[in-house]
Structure formats: C-alpha cells, structure tokens
Amino acid sequence: MPSHDVLIIGAGLAGQRAALAAAQSGASVAIVSKVHPVRSHSVAAAGGINAALNPEDTWESHAFDTVKGSDYLGDQDAIEVMCREAPGEILWLEHAGVTFHRNETGHLGTRAFGGASAARTYYVADITGHAILHVLYEQLMKHGDTVDRYEEWFTTDLLQDDDGRCIGAVCRNLRDGRMEVFNAKATILASGGAGQAYKPTTNGLIVTGDGIAQAFRIGARLMDMEMIQYHPTTLAGNGLLITEGARGEGAWLLNAEGERFMERYAPNKLELASRDVVSRAEQTEINEGRGFPDGTVALDITKVPRRRTLEALREIVNIGRDFAGTDITREPIHIKPGQHYIMGGIKTDVDGQTTVPGLYAAGEVACVSVHGGNRLGANSLLDTLIFGRRSGEHAARIALHMPMPNTPNSRLDAAEAAIAAIMNRKQGGRRVAAIKNELGETMNQYVAVFRDADGLNKAHEIVRRLMEEAPEAAIDDHGSVFNQDVIAAIELGYMLDCAEAIVVASIERKESRGAQFRTDFPERNDAQWLKHIDISVNGADVPKVSYSEVTITRWQPEERTY
Ligand SMILES: Cc1cc2nc3c(=O)[nH]c(=O)nc-3n(C[C@H](O)[C@H](O)[C@H](O)COP(=O)(O)OP(=O)(O)OC[C@H]3O[C@@H](n4cnc5c(N)ncnc54)[C@H](O)[C@@H]3O)c2cc1C
Questions:
Q1: E-strand spans in 136-245?
Q2: Measuring from atom 6 of ligand 1, which residue has the nearest CA?
Q3: Atom 33 of ligand 1: nearest residue by CA position
Q4: Crossing angle for the helix pair 210-217 and 484-508, nearest 10 degrees?
Q5: pLDDT the model gives residue 247
Q6: Which of 352, 404, 392 is nearest to 24 (CA)?
Q7: Strands (DSSP E) found in 402-441
Q8: What one-character DSSP code corresponds to residue 369?
Q9: What value does the mean pLDDT take over residues 459-470?
Q10: Per-residue model confidence (pLDDT) at position 313
C-alpha cells in the first residue's frame, strides 16, 4: 500500500506547487492525477498572472482591486496574503525558468487586465499556464527520490479514521483498473473546478468537480458556491475562450449596431471592467435585441496592431481561424458570455486547511475566499500557486511530526463494490452523456448571468431528478483497461453534487452581488447578505445551508463602479 507523509490529489498548478513545497520541506509526497500532469487543465490558462512587482505599483493597490472585484465578499486577510506574496512568486517562477515576456528595456513586461488599476499581468504570449506548468513539472523531476508520481490514477473516495481525520484516499489505476488504498498523514485536494457541470463551458472535459464533491461527501464545508463566473468572451456553441488578454491589448466590444456599448455600462474602465460587469452588459445588449442573430456581440481585435496580435495573442488567432472561421487580425469575432470558473469551493483557511482535519485544498477546488463574488482575470493562477505552496508547506510541517496512519486494505471494499455496481448496470437505460448534457444545459439556462427564483427552483427540480436517474445510467465498456465509461459515470455523480450545491446557494442568496445577479433581487444588500453561504452534506436530503462572516481588514464596502 502506498504510504506518504503528504498525498496530493491533482497535478495542475496548485498540486504541483504544493508537491514542490512539501518535498522542499522534507516530506515524502505522492501526487496523483487522472491525466498526465502537463495535460491538467491549468495548461489552458492563457492571458497571465497578476502581481504588483513594478516599483510604481503596490500590493495594497492589487489587494484593493481584488476586494472591489469580489464585490466585497472576498476575505481580506486571505487577499492580503495573496497580493503581498505575489511578487516573490513571480520572481521564483522566473528563476525556475518561466520565460515571461520582457519589454523593450529587458524588464518583465505586463499587460492590462480587467478590474485592475495598473497593468500588472505577467504573461508568456497567450500560453501562460502551459509555460508555468511545464516548468513546475521539470522542477518536480529534481525531487524524484521523495515525490512519487501516480499519473493516470483516478481518486474515487477520501478516507477518514474513526475520529473523522482524513487519512488518505482510494485510487484506481486507469491503465489496468487496479484499486489501491493510499495511506497519508495529510491529504491535499488540488483537483480543479467543476466547469463541466455547465454546457457549454471554457473548461476541458476533465474538469468535473471531483474534489469538491469528495470533500463534501465526507463532511467538509463548501463556501460561495453560488458564485459562478461567466467570462465575457467565449465562442457561441463550443464555449472556447478568447482570452481577456485581447481586451488587455486594446480590443473593443461592439453590438450589432456597431456601438461600443461598454461606454454606457462602465465609462471609466470600458472593456476592462470586472468580468461580471462586462458579461452582464453583453447579455443585456443581446437580450434587448442589439446583438447578432446568433445571440452574440462582437469582439474587435483589429484595434490591436496586427503584428502585436500575431506575437502576443497567437493562440486565439488559431482558435478564431479553426473554430469560428474568422481571421481576428482583419475582422471582429462573435462572442458571448460563457461559463468559465467557480469562485466557490471547499472552504479553507490561508494555509489550505479545510473543516475536515488532515484534509487541505488549494487552487480552483478551494475557496479561501480570495475571489468572493467575482474573480479578477489573472488572479486564479496566482491563487493556485500561493495557496498551493502554503498548503504544501503546512501539510509537510504537520505530517513530519505524526505517525503514519494504518489504514486496513478492507477500506477498498466499498469502493470496489461501487465500481462493480456501475459495471453491472442494466443496458438500455439513459446514457451517462445524455444526463450530463441535460445537467449542463439546465445550469446554463437557469443558473447563469441572470437568475431568478422560478428558474433556480426549476433547475433544482431537474438536478434532483437527474440525481435519481444517474445511478442507473448504462455504460458500454465493461473492461479494466482505460475504462473511461466507468470514470464518466463516477464523474457524473460529482458534477450533480456540485450542481446541487450551486443551485441551493443561489436560491439562498436573495440579493445581487458579483456573479450572482438576481433579477428578483436586483440590489446588493450588505445589511443582510454581506456574509458567506456555507453548504454541507445532510444525508440524502438537500444540502444544509449555514453562514460565515466575511473578514474585513481595511476596506469597507463601497458602491462598485468602473
Ligand atoms: C481556457 C482557460 C484560460 C484561463 N486563463 C487564465 C489566465 O490566463 N490566468 C488565470 O489566472 N487563470 C486562468 N484560467 C483559470 C485557471 O487556469 C484555473 O483556475 C487553474 O489553472 C486551476 O488550476 P488547478 O491546479 O486548481 O486545477 P487544474 O489545473 O484543473 O488541475 C486539476 C488536477 O486534478 C486532477 N484531478 C481531478 N480530479 C481527479 C481525480 N478524481 N483523481 C485524480 N486526479 C484528479 C487532474 O488530473 C489535474 O491534474 C483559465 C481557465 C481556462 C479554462
């Protein structure tokens, strides 16, 4: 049985940064990923990563922008930690080998991003996530003696001892279907977001909310789950992302009448207002008949000099050409708001500790909460790295002074029985993919940019029905080698758990704040709702709702205009 001081589930930026930190702190580490680590979804991150590194900029300014961007729901102690530590992290990455863009003077160059009062986004063309992920993986190789990599292993369940402490996980080797108990003194979930609960989404097929649901099922609290980010610039139909870097470089948003409509919604920041503000503006234009017949508005990247686009935005040149038949250097491209990110997740403190002893969480799976009601672009990569590192260090420190738990192999029985039950399902029922599609379309219809009680209740009804149908959904592959059918059936359960938590929290919050805009409660209501909504398991019933305080250190809530 694999036994390690620290078990890390997920090998994206958060997981790999946690693994490096834990290894450098002297711990033995296992890092598990259902795909090869450099195929983790962090590889898709495009536009960049924020830090107030420039001498004219300050971490306080970065922190205030983040607090304002969060619509005052972000916890300011955590935001201070993230913004204060950001410059050091960029320099660490640079020294580790990330080839950040350099300007004409040879210094690290920045681009502007939404909701920021200074250009503080460091980038590698529009492949920033790819560049960082590969460097972290190279660095992990140096720790081959103490870091065991379990690539293409799928975690099905977290394990607890009789006192409720997390003592590891059950994982399945995708290559041959073998199940193993992983014994660990501390476990860090770094398994990413839950975008596939929506259709379309900018997130890849692997982003299925596994860690959020696994932690929820063993009693960890979730927080801010109602806060789902719709990115302003995605392609209609397939949801592919056109990076905010395009607007950072100077692209305009236009309605079908050729009007630069952001002048009406955010006269100061225009296209570079916060994402929730821009997405609402676009959706309003579309709903009020000023969009194109395909339900979109236009992003005009021809405002950016062609040479600059070809140099700094080359991936979206390819996306425009291959997926929309548009040469973005010569004509506007049609875009619309699309599901992109979950601000909520497993509630943690600034060291990644969840409400379950021995269990940590970092990255998109977690909610520290630095993003509150709305994440600023380029703050997520930062969140993954800062809180990944802090979780790795903390978990290692605790683990080095603990005995190894002694988990009996019999803990495999329930997980193996669950897989056998999926394999033995009757043929002829509804397909896993059909249920997943209905879930995604439901969430995108009712739990999107604009919401109201009727739609949210309808969404909840549908999610509950799908939860009943999912355990019967038939699969075709009954083999053991790379059986993605069985994995998809398990992932569907995770997505449904996440969806229900999202819907329940959205119904609960009877105000409009950040990404949650309730047409039936259109105002922000600090007197009643300046608080986090926590969600926890309640047996087979609808999840339990409770509240926790928002931490305010120095920035009192103000009216939010851009
Ligand atoms: C298209 C796109 C562009 C973006 N651009 C930017 C940007 O420019 N700047 C920015 O700040 N943010 C950006 N974001 C957001 C950011 O990329 C993500 O929030 C961040 O990369 C998430 O990293 P993570 O380490 O938390 O998770 P991920 O990178 O998603 O990694 C999750 C890991 O968990 C593993 N895993 C999941 N479930 C299991 C399981 N059951 N068993 C075993 N392993 C499992 C996966 O294999 C993977 O290794 C972008 C997002 C998208 C979708």
A1: 147-151, 153-160, 166-173, 179-189, 222-223, 228-234
A2: 45
A3: 10
A4: 70
A5: 96
A6: 392
A7: none
A8: S
A9: 97
A10: 94
Whether ligand 1 lies within 6 angstroms of the CB of 191 is answered as: yes
pLDDT of 409 strictly over 90: no
Confirm or reject: Cβ of 203 under 6 Å from ligand 1: yes
Say which DSSP state 522 is in: -
Indicate the pTM of the whole model. Answer: 0.98
Other CB atoms within a 10 A radius of the CB of residue 10 amount to 33
CB atoms within 10 A of CB 25: 18
46 lines ligand 1 (CB under 6 A): yes
Dist CA 214 CA 229 (whole Å)? 22
For residue 16 the two structure tokens come to: 């790999």
Buried b (16+ CB within 10 A) or exposed e, 469-496: ebeebebeeeebeebebbbbbbbbbbbb
Type of residue found at 117: S
Distance in angstroms (rounded) separating the CA atoms of residues 280 and 441: 19
Examine residue 42 and say whether the peptide bond preceding it is cis (omega within 30 degrees of 0): no
Question: SS3 of 338, please?
Answer: strand
- Comparing CA positions, the residue from 136, 118, 148 lying closest to residue 45 is 136
- The angle subtended at Cα 245 by Cα 310 and Cα 280, nearest 5°, is 135
Q: What is the CA radius of gyration of the chain?
A: 22
Structure tokens at 352: 């990644």
- How far from 495 is each of 9, 197, 241, CA to CA, in Å? 17, 5, 21
- The first and second tokens of residue 199, run together, are 């259709």
Residue from 275, 390, 518, 524 carrying the catalytic annotation: 275
- 429 has pLDDT over 90: no
**Nearest CA, atom 4, ligand 1:** 45
Count other C-beta atoms under 10 Å from residue 503's C-beta: 29
Residues 21, 305: Cα–Cα separation, whole Å: 41
CA of 44 to the centre of ligand 1 (A): 8
Confidence of residue 165 (pLDDT cuts 50, 70, 90): very high
Residue 294, helix vs strand vs coil? coil
Query: Left (φ > 0), alpha (ψ -120 to 50) or beta: where does 113 sit?
Result: beta
Atom of ligand 1 nearest to the CA of 191: 34
CB 352 near ligand 1, within 6 Å: no
Instruction: Please say if 275 is a catalytic residue.
Output: yes
Ligand 1 nearest-atom number relative to CA 171:
42
Cα–Cα distance, 494 to 503 (Å, whole number): 14
Indicate whether 427 pLDDT > 90: no
pLDDT tens digit string along 343-386? 999 999 999 999 999 999 999 999 999 999 999 999 999 999 99
Distance 47 CA to ligand 1 centre (A): 14
